[in-house]
Amino acid sequence: MTKAKVIRMLGFGAFLAPAILFGVGVLPHVEPSYALSSPANGAPAPDFTAVGSDGAQHRLSDYRGSTVVLEWTSPVCEFTVRQYDSGNMQALQAYAAEHKVVWLSIDTAAPGKPGYLTAAAAESLTKARGATITSFLFDPTGEIGQRYGAKSTPSIYVIDPSGTLVYQGAVNEQTRGDPRKAQNYVRPALEEVLSGKPVSLASTRQYGCPVEY
Amino acid sequence: MDNLTILPSGNARCDSRALAAKIIRVGTLLGLLALSVGTAALGPSRAGAATGAPTRVVADLISETTSIKPGTTLWVALRLQPPAGWHTYWSNPGDSGLATSIDWALPAGLVAGHMAWPRPERLPIGPLVIYGYDGEAVLLTPIAVSAQFVAGQPATLSAEASWVVCNETCIPEQASLKLTLPVSDAAAPINQSAKALFEKARAELPEISPWPVTSWQSDRTISVRLAAAGLDRTRISNALFFPSDDGVIDAGASQSISVDAKGLTVTASRPAQSKSPLKRLSGVLEFNSADGAGDVRRAYAVDVPITAAPSNAGSTTSLDIAEALLLALLGGLILNLMPCVLPVLAIKAIGFAQQAAQNPSVARRHGLSFTAGVLFFFGVLGGLIVALRAAGATIGWGFQLQSPIVVAATAYILFTVGLNLSGVFELGTISIGGRLADRNGYTGSFFTGVLATLVASPCTAPFMGAALGLALAQPWYVAALIFQAVGLGMALPYLVLSFAPRLMRLLPRPGAWLAWFKQALAFPMYGACIWLVWVLAQQVGVDSLAWTLIGLLLIGFSTWLVGVGQKGLVQTRLVTLGLATATVITAVALLAMMPAPNEGAVRQQTAGLVWEKFSPAELDSVRAAGNPVMVDITAAWCVSCLVNDATVLSSSEFAQSVKRNHLALLRGDWTKSDPEITHYLESFNRAGVPLYVLYPSINANSEPTVLPQILTKEGVVAAIERLQSAAAENPKQGEKL
Questions:
Q1: 8 Å CB contact between B464 and B486
Q2: Which of residues 25-54 of A touch B (CB under 8 A)?
Q3: How far apart are CA B140 and CA B591, in angstroms?
Q4: What is this model's ipTM?
Q5: What is the per-residue pLDDT for B589?
Q6: Beta strands in B182-327 (DSSP E)
Q7: Which of B321, B317, B296 is nearest to B223 (CA)?
Q8: For an interface test with B, which of A139, A151, A174, A175 has the most B Cβ atoms less than 10 Å from its Cβ?
């Protein structure tokens, strides 16, 4: 290698290094927007860690390999209450449990909001509702809700075993009455995921009560 | 309402909740009874109350006339009266909730038309925004009465009304409503008790626009324009567009408004997951208009086909693409004059001067390589910005300087270049003694272009603000074109020079003076380095700064080693090169220790004036207090911001004007990434700082004024005084001051 060559390479290095640094340096410093984002179906479901009513930390990615249902719930929202009073939600949960689907109920309500629950209250609510769920998780900062773009309770996100978001929307078609009589969206989505088929109705409009950010 | 705040805690809790709900329901029932007694007392069959389960909302049907005349249209109102603080929904409920609906069961001969929705209100609930009615809602339905409808027997109109009523939580409710009216061939007398109600409800229905309405869309936005020539911009405020359909716009995002001599344009963001372009836009466009009698909320129905691009050039903020490309080109040209670019390019010019003396065709090729380097960098940077934004990050021009690592790395580069210019070591690529005529020198020209652009990027030239703002709102290929135009503008003088040998002869001939000139150019580089280190000190504090300074020392040491090696024996050279490489690696490793940026990098106090921290919420609350407001969005790394700060915003003239006009001051710091501020910049079609906005007193009903990016004392003071005179024209404001 001649002297000129060595020097030239050093020179290029001096220019390339900052260019690479520039690229690498910027990426980790771009903060996500704190407005509601809306993840796309077919994209990886945003990972999160949340404290459950059992006091333990639950990480979404720990359930990789299983189908996961995220249910945005509220103890005070009449739309959610009707899902449980009618037994519609419990029927879905039972179907999920039977097929080893992980069911995470999430309460996005800060302390002081009507829908806020203590861990003990959430435990007894789950028992009182007769809900067969994997865990009841808390999102008091609203961060998980914002990452999923959760707008209403009740709303449902289904994540397939590879961690891909495959359904987002309402539990069933818009109704003010008995949810059991309305067309259910989650049951067929789960059936399709469990049999390895693509979800035919993958996105519906969330309706109900605004999530209590 | 209290029952909703009781925290459920098991079975006992469910009981208490049910009990509370019962109490409420009994209360509502009593209210309902009182109302039906009341309406019954008014006379027979003008208002129909609900039967069925008691509801939180008091609902009733009210007829406009006291009888039905065959062959006419009867108007019936569904009135929903929720308790204070509760709201019901519009036909498109926005982010959550459900629209109110009504199902009629009418005797044969009566046919109900579509419900006429009053103009909705935008009701924010945390980050969500819903469209609806806070308090009472009066929804009108026209009922066509057949001419064959038989007079004599009273007719009963039945309706199943369903609605969702919310405050912090929501309750779906329904009621069976009935209204019985006599049928008579005589002219139907007006229901006097409901006259005011119907008048008010009609006034709130969206009108057909008397002006042409157009709409266009980009990937991220949708705009609707009323070509209302002569609309007085100082009288228009709070313009908002409400789409008829869910998912057309991001309900929670703020909308930008521009009023010019030819009309009014409202631009809203499309949802991030929006699919194919829309074909038609329907909805309601609303704004407040101060017309003689005071502030009136106007609402116009919109239902128009959407064109792909702005269909007219009347708008002041949305530049068309050709104009944006030209501005981008000019902006790029001006970048050459920035103190952080000039030294690098001066070296290039010297190179050309040498080429001129040697071989014009080689000079041409160097010119092209340099241009390619510039365009390459702008391509990469533009691509990076567009890609990151597509991924949902909120960034803008100059964003790279929001990262302390990049700031420190840029300081390293500038220092290294400075040392090279000072003659500490020689670098084949940019040294004057190097063989530029060498074929490999073209790569050097290419990287000179890259380097020049890297150091120029923080210097957002005044011309570039609007062009880049537009670029970031465009499809990626248009954005890329605009970024390339900036690059071309920057490279243009050198490109022209390299292709025009005659011009080149005008440059001074190379000689001994070149060595001195080169050494002198090192000092602007050191100056720029000081500036970057200062920015870094603002971002990370003094302790972390020490590591960067040590890094600079190591760079000084390693370049000196290289210099020694270049003058010494082969063995010395190898040893020094090895040592130098190790030292550079250590210096670069120090960058990794950089912490996240601090809060409050920008001074909040200048010239005895206190600037409050900017946030959209703070802006709203300060405006609500009634004072005019000046917003300054700035960043520690923004040169023009600092110049404005030092020359204008620190002046006593400015301070006096602020005090005289009771101007509230808000300063937003974009030194590090802040999505709220990025959104605010975008609402003014800006991609970078500085941004200065003057808001008149909220009572003055005029639009905010955007000040130029380069301020003058006279200009700012005059703009502030204009606010005052605009406010004085308004009687309400006159009383206040």
A1: yes
A2: 25-26, 29-38, 40
A3: 67
A4: 0.73
A5: 75
A6: 207-208, 213-217, 221-226, 236-243, 256-260, 263-269, 280-290, 295-307
A7: B317
A8: A151
Determine the Cα–Cα distance for residues B431 and B335; give it in Å rounded to an integer: 23
State in Å, rounded, how far the first CA of chain B is from the last one.
41
- Put simply, the chain B residues between 274 and 333 with a CB less than 8 A from any chain A CB are none
Model confidence pLDDT, tens digit, residues B430-470: 333 344 334 456 777 787 777 777 666 655 444 455 556 66
Q: Is pTM, for the whole model, over 0.90? A: no
In the structure encoding, which two tokens stand for residue B554, read together?
Answer: 């190591």
List of E strands, chain A? 49-51, 57-59, 68-72, 102-107, 135-138, 152-153, 155-159, 165-169, 209-210
Q: What angle do CA B171, B173, B176 make, to 5 degrees?
A: 170
DSSP-derived secondary structure letter, B142: E
Q: How far apart are alpha carbons B394 and A28 in whole angstroms?
A: 13
Q: Which two tokens stand for residue A126?
A: 């789950």
Q: Do B447 and A15 touch (CB under 8 A)?
A: yes
Average of per-residue pLDDT across A52-70:
94
Residues in chain B within 8 Å Cβ distance of A125: 8-10
Per-residue CA distances from B610 to A81, A212, B66, B664, B669 (Å): 51, 35, 64, 9, 14
Exposure of B616 in the CB half-sphere (CA atoms within 13 A): 13
Cα separations in angstroms, B194 against B81, B112, B118, B184, B245: 15, 20, 17, 20, 32
- Which residue, among A5, A12, A20, A29, would best test binding to B if mutated, counting the most B CBs under 10 Å from its CB? A29
C-alpha–C-alpha distance, residues B26 and B95, integer Å: 32
User: How far is residue B730's CA from residue B294's CA, in Å, rounded to a whole number?
Assistant: 10
Q: What percentage of chain B has pLDDT greater than the value 90?
A: 17
Other residues' Cβ atoms within 10 Å of the Cβ of residue A51: 15
Alpha-carbon span A179 to A175, nearest angstrom? 7
Beta-bridge mates of residue B631: B666, B693
- Biggest CA-to-CA distance, chain B: 121
For B383, nearest residue in chain A (alpha carbons): A23
CB distance B503 to B497 below 8 Å: yes
Q: What is the DSSP string of B350-374?
A: HHHHHHHHH-HHHHHHHHHHHHHHH
Helices (H), A107-142: 119-129
DSSP-assigned states of every residue in B197-237: HHHHHHHTSPEEPSS-EEEEE-SSEEEEEE--TT--GGGEE
Q: How do beta strands A155-159 and B605-606 pair? A: unpaired
Ranges in chain B, pLDDT < 50? 1-46, 310-318, 392, 428-439, 460-463, 599-601, 729-737
What is the b/e burial string over B146-177, where b = at least 16 CB atoms within 10 angstroms of the residue's CB?
eeebeeeeebebbbebbbbbbbbbbbbbbbbb
- Cβ of residue B174 closer than 8 Å to a chain A Cβ: yes
Residues B12-70: tens digit of each pLDDT: 333 344 444 444 444 444 444 333 333 333 333 345 555 566 778 999 999 999 999 99
Nearest to B126 by CA among A45, A39, A139, A137: A139
CA A6 to chain centre: 54
Q: In one letter, which amino acid is B290?
A: A
In sequence order, which residues have a C-beta less than 8 Å from that of residue A103 and are 6 or more positions away? Answer: A68, A69, A71, A93, A96, A97, A132, A133, A134
Taking the CA atoms of A181, A183, A187 and A191 in sequence, report the sign of the dihedral they define: positive
